[in-house]
Amino acid sequence: xxxxxxxxxxxxxxxxxxxxxxxxxxxxxxxxxxxxxxxxxxxxxxxxxxxxxxxxxxxxxxxxxxxxxxxxxxxxxxxxxxxxxxxxxxxxxxxxxxxxxxxxxxxxxxxxxxxxxxxxxxxxxxxxxxxxxxxxxxxxxxxxxxxxxxxxxxxxxxxxxxxxxxxxxxxxxxxxxxxxxxxxxxxxxxxxxxxxxxxxxxxxxxxxxxxxxxxxxxxxxxxxxxxxxxxxxxxxxxxxxxxxxxxxxxxxxxxxxxxxxxxxxxxxxxxxxxxxxxxxxxxxxxxxxxxxxxxxxxxxxxxxxxxxxxxxxxxxxxxxxxxxxxxxxxxxxxxxxxxxxxxxxxxxxxxxxxxxxxxxxxxxxxxxxxxxxxxxxxxxxxxxxxxxxxxxxxxxxxxxxxxxxxxxxxxxxxxxxxxxxxxxxxxxxxxxxxxxxxxxxxxxxxxxxxxxxxxxxxxxxxxxxxxxxxxxxxxxxxxxxxxxxxxxxxxxxxxxxxxxxxxxxxxxxxxxxxxxxxxxxxxxxxxxxxxxxxxxxxxxxxxxxxxxxxxxxxxxxxxxxxxxxxxxxxxxxxxxxx
Length: 578
Prior knowledge:
The radius of gyration is 30 Å and the shape is globular. Among the domains are: about 45-165, 3-Layer(aba) Sandwich (Glutaredoxin), CATH 3.40.30; about 170-270 and about 325-345 and about 375-455, 3-Layer(aba) Sandwich (Rossmann fold). It is α/β, with parallel strands linked by helices. The strands form five sheets. Strands 6-5-7-8-18-17-15 form a seven-stranded mixed beta sheet, sandwiched between helices. A four-stranded mixed beta sheet has the order 2-1-3-4, covered by helices on one side. It is built from 15 helices and 18 strands. This is ABC transporter.
């Protein structure tokens, strides 16, 4: 009995000492953190530390995180703690130049009012950041999103950089096409964020004040302008370039400049001028001409999130991008450049001769050619690497300029039609956002530009393939139904036009209108059934995958408990001596 009492007292004393250690001494110990992740996602990059070291005056960061908000999911709660840890790492690395304020705004409080006043998003509870600096306007991140975790370090660094350099970057626009009408919305958005300088088509030299150069359809530019572009790029000016084998917004432009192919090769890339890209999976419906029904257009591609480089700044916040009659990019032979795809076709795509596509009377046979290709093509890419001059003898008697560069930085897009307002009518405009993201990144300070997104996880390739197959099956069965639904809606609107109505109104019982109403209800049901049928294998595989991930853990715990039970039972079983 005494031994049991002494054992109990010993356990009690040990428990009290452990509790005292945690309450009194542990909080006073310095915090030690180890980052065992392969990509070092919990450690600030050297580029971020360089950016913080360049701060000349203190900043205040106000992190608004509504804890335990009813509409906030557990995943968002966990991500909120992750953001807080990263912000604390920024504060520590800044050596007193950042003052972090962590705020839990209560509903209808002054803090909540301030957060709303600065434009933070409260849809799922506040989870945003406001940055201020003496004498400068405030900057904000409306809401941190878990799906953007790979860009978290860049997001915060971007805000800090904007506080340190609030002036707008200068973007030089040099176009071989007229963007006044089709690109008016994009140009307006560009002028809101940048100081846009439109350069003449026959320019002899790019001004040194240009931070980033944006060139559209250089095939249509004179050779003098190409030489100016090349020399500016070799001097280190970042470039965003749009080249297109068949530009719908500049159908009259002729690709007559033979120097362009040599210029691309000098930069380490190539694009066939007479080939355009068609895609069975990402093809979207379009009207070939006035009064014609909508059909599946294999060259007008609706690129979903799966077709993008999800860890690149250019595609930040994008759900979709629409391109039309685009080309395909690749590295030139013997190129030493690094080509990072930003926009990709699906595996059911092919390059087709532009003349053959223009003469086709139906798209069905063209779509069938892509079914077994299995190759993905690059529509837009980030290109970095060495380059040399395509004008080794200079231009028209002028002395030769720069002959090579160790590193050039550019983003090349094999499409110009994504710049047109008519191509992307969705809100938010993914096409415009893609351009703005890219220009902002290219014009950023060097330290910010070198901050690379962290790869958080590897995709499940088999699951992606099954999703692509399901999307293809759904599109194949839904095109005709979508066409019928659109025709039905048009006919219904003609018979039931919008006009000023009274509070109550008589029900139109005409046979034709009732038939249209019936079809308007029936067709969406059939579309939903087709979608459920197409995605059923994917959902079944996802359930099996979740089972394989979830079930083994409790089984393992049960096995361990059973083994412990057997071990204890053997210890307490009295030995039998013969």
